[in-house]
């Protein structure tokens, strides 16, 4: 017979079992019946069971199209999940990395996870699951035996980062950039920087040990002021030669390739790449800086960076032949930043 303890233990001791989309349910998964914009998830409980759901969780007793014994009721599904998140996060002993920023979070998260997985077990955010619900799902879907857990933390309004970071509690933080995004709420980049700085504010994240961030504009430099104010143990800046720990020292074109010389905390590295797109090179710098800090083998990155493919909708290049001419299409269709 279903009971709360049985379900909690199943979620804690398994990975990637919690789903909110009935179409993604596979054998052994748990379906969360949540209130959506148009329908309550109860409408899809029957479909989830048919797809192999082990359990279905809901806090509504109406609109259920099944009387299956696999359905478990809780008084408040978010309170249930929130309590369980704290239990599972406390049990995780690996290193937790939190990534935020105005743009580029998902691509960097995917790149960093790609390199780490070459040697280690890694749990990471699914797609762009970076809001409060997405982070809850990511934590509950973690593998407790993973060496690293990589999270995206997103925000489009005040107070969201401090709410999310108290669940994730990352000891290592990366801020990709501060740009003019979600200005409908924040109004200006300074306020965005203040909101993002909550990810390394010890008041909300007492685990913080490392901060890596881009520092090329005055709003990003504001992060440096806060980092010093909060006495962050290790601060690594990425940007220009004269004011950063990590930077691009030179880019040379040779035939159809680019030779990119990087300085990472006074160590020099050379990459041979097919592109000189700045944000992609900076992603490599973020990864190298984090590998160096953790004393990981940077050759994992140097030998594999050309194998990493851009995320769909974020720079993936397709070649199509039209009227006997090869045409390149660059897919930048994803855009979550109004």
From TrEMBL:
<dbReference type="InterPro" id="IPR036565">
    <property type="entry name" value="Mur-like_cat_sf"/>
</dbReference>
<feature type="domain" description="Mur ligase N-terminal catalytic">
    <location>
        <begin position="18"/>
        <end position="65"/>
    </location>
</feature>
<keyword id="KW-0547">Nucleotide-binding</keyword>
<dbReference type="InterPro" id="IPR035911">
    <property type="entry name" value="MurE/MurF_N"/>
</dbReference>
<protein>
    <recommendedName>
        <fullName>Mur ligase central domain-containing protein</fullName>
    </recommendedName>
</protein>
<keyword id="KW-0067">ATP-binding</keyword>
<dbReference type="GO" id="GO:0005524">
    <property type="term" value="F:ATP binding"/>
</dbReference>
<keyword id="KW-0436">Ligase</keyword>
<dbReference type="Pfam" id="PF01225">
    <property type="entry name" value="Mur_ligase"/>
</dbReference>
<dbReference type="InterPro" id="IPR000713">
    <property type="entry name" value="Mur_ligase_N"/>
</dbReference>
<feature type="domain" description="Mur ligase central">
    <location>
        <begin position="99"/>
        <end position="290"/>
    </location>
</feature>
<dbReference type="GO" id="GO:0016881">
    <property type="term" value="F:acid-amino acid ligase activity"/>
</dbReference>
<dbReference type="InterPro" id="IPR013221">
    <property type="entry name" value="Mur_ligase_cen"/>
</dbReference>
<dbReference type="InterPro" id="IPR051046">
    <property type="entry name" value="MurCDEF_CellWall_CoF430Synth"/>
</dbReference>
<dbReference type="Pfam" id="PF08245">
    <property type="entry name" value="Mur_ligase_M"/>
</dbReference>
């Amino acid at each position: 017979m279903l009971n709360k303890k049985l379900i909690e233990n199943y979620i804690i001791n398994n990975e990637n079992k919690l789903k909110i989309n009935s179409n993604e349910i596979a054998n052994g998964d748990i379906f969360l019946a949540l209130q959506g914009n148009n329908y309550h998830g109860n409408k899809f409980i029957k479909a989830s069971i048919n797809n192999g759901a082990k359990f279905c969780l809901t806090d509504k007793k109406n609109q259920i199209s099944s009387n299956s014994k696999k359905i478990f009721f809780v008084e408040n599904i978010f309170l249930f999940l929130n309590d369980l998140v704290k239990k599972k996060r406390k049990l995780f002993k690996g290193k937790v990395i939190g990534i935020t920023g105005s743009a580029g979070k998902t691509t960097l998260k995917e790149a960093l996870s790609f390199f780490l997985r070459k040697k280690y077990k890694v749990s990471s955010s699914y797609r762009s699951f970076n809001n409060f619900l997405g982070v809850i799902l990511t934590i509950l879907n973690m593998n407790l035996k993973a060496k690293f857990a990589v999270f995206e933390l997103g925000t489009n309004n005040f107070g969201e980062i401090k709410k999310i970071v108290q669940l994730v509690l990352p000891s290592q933080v990366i801020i990709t950039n501060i740009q003019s995004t979600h200005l409908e709420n924040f109004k200006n980049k300074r306020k965005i920087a203040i909101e993002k700085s909550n990810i390394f504010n010890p008041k909300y994240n007492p685990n913080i040990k490392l901060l890596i961030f881009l520092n090329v504009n005055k709003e990003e430099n504001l992060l440096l002021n806060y980092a010093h104010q909060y006495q962050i143990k290790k601060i690594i800046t990425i940007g220009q030669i004269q004011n950063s720990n990590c930077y691009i020292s030179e880019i040379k074109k040779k035939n159809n390739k680019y030779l990119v010389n990087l300085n990472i905390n006074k160590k020099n590295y050379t990459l041979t790449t097919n592109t000189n797109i700045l944000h992609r090179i900076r992603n490599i710098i973020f990864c190298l800086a984090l590998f160096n800090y953790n004393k990981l083998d940077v050759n994992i990155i140097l030998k594999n960076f050309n194998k990493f493919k851009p995320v769909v909708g974020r720079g993936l290049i397709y070649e199509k032949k039209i009227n006997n001419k090869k045409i390149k299409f660059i897919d930048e269709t994803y855009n979550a930043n109004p």
